[in-house]
Amino acid sequence: MIRYIVRLVLIACAFYFVFPRIEGVEFHGSFFHALLAGVVFAVLGFLVESLAIALSAILAIGTLGMALLVLIPSWILGFWLLPAIVLRYLAEIMPGTISFTGWMPAIWGGLLMLVIGVVTSGAFRDGGRHGEMTVPADAI
Question: Which single residue of 8, 41, 52, 128 has CA 20 to 30 Å from 120?
Answer without folding.
Answer: 52
